[in-house]
Amino acid sequence: MWQIDSVNKQGLLLEVVQVLTDMNLTISKGFISSDAGWFMDVFHVKDERGNKITDQRVINYIQQAIGSNGLATPKVKARSSSVSHLSELKAIEMTGKDRPGLFSEISAALADLQCNIVEAHAWSHNARLACVAYISDQSIDTPIDDQRLHAIEDHLNTVLRATTTKGENSNQQEAKPAGLPEGEGTMTNVERRLHQLMLSVRDFDTPAELVKSPRPISESDDEERKGSSVSIESCLEKGYSIVNIRSRDRRRLMFDTVCTLTDMQYVIFHASVDSSGGYAYQEYFIRHVDGCALNTESEKDRVVKCLEAAIERRVCEGVRLELCAHNRVGLLSDITRVLRENGLAVVRADIETQGENSVNAFYVRDTSGNNVDLDFLRSMKGEIGAIDLAVMEDTINYQPTSPGRSKFSIGGILRSQIERISHSFIATR
Q1: Which of 209, 224, 232, 260 has the fewest CB atoms found within 10 Å of its own CB?
Q2: pTM
């Protein structure tokens, strides 16, 4: 259990949750109260394996990061990337109307411009794409000047707006310098920016094309929809709006919801968080920063939709591919091209540089948004052979799949094409 007492300020709860989340700690239970200018949080946290924290070094670090006397403003831990000088690289952010192969087109465009992608994170949800990437000029030791950066952004804008139709807002399909804090960032800083980008392109609204032709709902999709609910009621006596959230439990869930409410300019005065039986229950007493509760049905509906989107956008269905290879300019472009040519669309990507290697994790589905046809993949395997790749048919952050379905070899399907790209792929564990 961790108790934090401090003078209150807007966003302080998010800062504390960010510190705990960046340490890969799971908040299993929490009580928050911040009236009359004072802030008190009580958190029950576990490590990433679900165990109680007993390592005194970890305990000492939490005290140092949040403030040992309980009054200090939380200090954010720098990300634990092997690339220690991300702050010297150029960070760009991209938003666009998602389409099959778009992430591959972005990767190809940066490769054509001789840009090395040192780190990148991309989310897609409701036919929108958001991406934050750290790039360098051919090597991680060569920074990109502002003039060249403008040329890169212009080229990427052409790619992002390739299918823009008359009447669409081109500002929702653009590349520009990333709106991240100065200096070394943290993973939650990047994830918060991805949430903000998705919010800016209104991924909480279902596009007209998906309303007209919705993709088939898979069994796990249906379970997720049934398992999550967001409702808002009024507390007239105290002048609060009460947000109730029930969702399948997963890591970083509290970060996602607190982040969204904070960025929508709502102040959380009281909250309770609990998890039981694989589900998480969150209750937030909120007001807008102007001191008003949610008075209209349209405002309540928007908050409900935005919180539902915040819960959904991190959850990725489908096949997870993990690849590790010697880093070079154009590597990501080659990998994503192979995926695209095999009818696979990237719905989420996390790319990092560790030493001289590029470590890539992709969630993929077919270009229609459906689960990958395993029979089709197996029919190709016998023709091509095997390659060591870590592959899991999994939905992120939820309970493990059954042993019989947890893994299958997609590596053989891609071997002949990937071996032309690099001979240094290794299995990730």
Answers
A1: 209
A2: 0.83
